[in-house]
Amino acid sequence: MIVGVQPLAGFDKLLHYKVPETLRASIRAGSLVRVPILNQHKVGLVMEVNGVVDVPLEKLKTVSGLLQDYPALTPDLLTLAKWMHGYYAARMESVLEAMIPGAVRDGTRLKQEKYLSAAHKPTTEELAALRKKAPQQSRLMEFLAHQFQPAKKSLLLSRLAVTAAVVNALVKRGWVREEVRHVERVAYADQWATGEVVATQPPKLNEEQATIVTSVGASLDKGKFAVHLLHGVTGSGKTEVYLHAVERVLAAGGSAIYLVPEVALTPQTVARLRGRFEAAGHRTVVWHSHLSEGERLDGWTALASGQARVVVGARSAVFAPVRDLRLIVVDEEHEPAYKQDETPRYHGRDVAVYRAKLANATCLLGSATPSLESFSNVRNGRYRLDVLTKRVDDKQLPDFQIVDMRIEVMRTRGLVTLSRLLVNHMQARFERKEQTILFINRRGYSSSMQCRKCGHVEECPHCSVAMTYHRADETLKCHLCGHERGAPAVCPSCAAPDIRWRGLGTQRVEEAVRRVLPRARLERVDTDTMAKRHRFREILSDFRTGKIDVLIGTQMIGKGLDFPNVTLVGLVDADLSMHVPDFRANERTFQLLVQVAGRAGRGDRAGEVVVQTFTPKADAVQFAKNADFNGFAEAELHVRHRFQYPPYRHLIHHLFRGPNPEKIKFFAEHWAKEVEKALGNTVELRGPTPSPIEKVKDEYRYQIWYFCASAAKVVPALVKLQATVKWPEDVFQVLDVDPMSL
Ligand code: ADP
Ligand code: ZN
Questions:
Q1: Which residues form the Helicase ATP-binding domain (predicted)?
Q2: In the CATH scheme, what is the code of domain 399-444+504-642?
């Protein structure tokens, strides 16, 4: 028996080994094994069994061990790994590292800790003698003599400032007992998931929900691959539909994966799911980036062994080694957070769809604002569309008001942060003891240019994206095609001299609110507060219990939050996401507006939304006001079609970086010519151009965009071409397939 093994230690190559008699029965494709490489033993994953090699058998080395008795990757995951390797042009090693947690790859089973306890109860005289002769020994002995439980050795050493030699001396003398203990960890007892678990009774589904549950149920029962796109306004009961689908799978003995964009930001959703599944006796593994290695190992083992059949988690939970996968839910499928921004640069939603296909499972994508990629898959018949048209209990969607900031600026003849309308509404809420959330749009470059009088933003005539201002040479540049013009001194549209750079921080908004509502209790949530996780939870809890009147933060805090007493939501600056050099800018803005509005009026009282903008007539704003997703999608797909942007073609971003700007530019141009020669009729190139941020950490950056019909064909061709070109040593490159931000 010969196996092909992909090492996980810096060898990007399949190596072949013989398998000893003792391991033959237990090694399978997907198993983690230890193999000799050079003079060391390394961990690797078995990619194929019964491999064929043209090396004589006696020259092959032998597998030296097996890490776990179950394969780390199930057959569908192994196929998925190969697909990701090809599609995202990622090294196999990095793909496997993304899929298999470190603790599993290390072969650690449970964490082991050394513990100390007293083996002898010393008399007062013995202690006195010890104190004189060996003060460190006496310190440890006195401490242990008073302990009922064995104490962790590592902790004692540092806390009592004694050395390991001191412990050894006492062990030798028979006074101290040292033992190794396995430390139990509970994967679901982490700080994000605890505290709020409430076992809730499922509400009776309304008619629309019931129809969709039946439709999804039919796909589940068929046991064939199907994708459903659930489009439902915020608060229409989508989560309830997901829960029913998962329950159906669990009842039939299958497993389900439930993806959310970011676990840390959706504690409420996680608590709700756990409440429901755990009340029904299903251990629920919560999977996210803040888990310790030990917690990860426990959760993984529970899923791989079939002890747990449901996992809730962010992007990487799509690789959970569940048995008999029947369903993958992707909540908020439009969220850019599903895309990983380091290698392998995969998209969690796209991987979910592909994995469901391999497993003959159902993939349930849901959103109040589906991505245009998914929506166009409905149109071309690949996905099935299910729609929830109204909020649960016929609750009204909030009243949506647009403030034209150009008029505000004229009125006050100066810089305005909060419009008169927004201030009036906030004051009224404060009087009535209702709550307000103010969102600040975090996306956006301070380097885009907008006229404060007419709202005009200069766009590239070839690419329909905002141009970026370069202070150094006073120019506006397009970062897709390189088109360039001098930065205008007056507005190109209305000739006003009021053209300026944008940017608004949470702090400035907080100051503005303090001026108009001096007695209100405010809290600000920004990257600083988010870094201290307990603080973020504290704020949410204080907001819920009414200890805070106004919550200020970026749109990140808005996800999935459900506060019944919030009757006003303000968006301070809608434009920041609209005029970034990104063809998805309109889509992002529309999504932002709809999602933000969805936070208002979730309780018994109707909600109101106030959106401040310099471009009130923009499509994204107008369609969002009418909560008209279909209208927006039609209009935007039209634009995408005209410029042949995704979803009509795939986009691949190629970044070149290095210390020497001339060399990078020269090489990028040379490479572009090679691509043109080899792939000119399947790929359209734009660039090379300098990246929006030209210099990062003393490295210069150039980029090329490839537009193509099939990334699955073009990426391997690019990789093949790379092998034929001599790459300079100090030019590094990154390929990003289907990038989510430009
Ligand atoms: P979405 O995920 O679309 O935002 P949710 O599923 O969170 O919507 O539902 C919004 C609220 O309505 C939740 O508090 C949920 O418990 C409740 N809800 C959902 N479906 C029903 C129903 N059929 N009857 C009563 N309440 C429901
Ligand atoms: Zn352009």
A1: 219-388
A2: 3.40.50.300
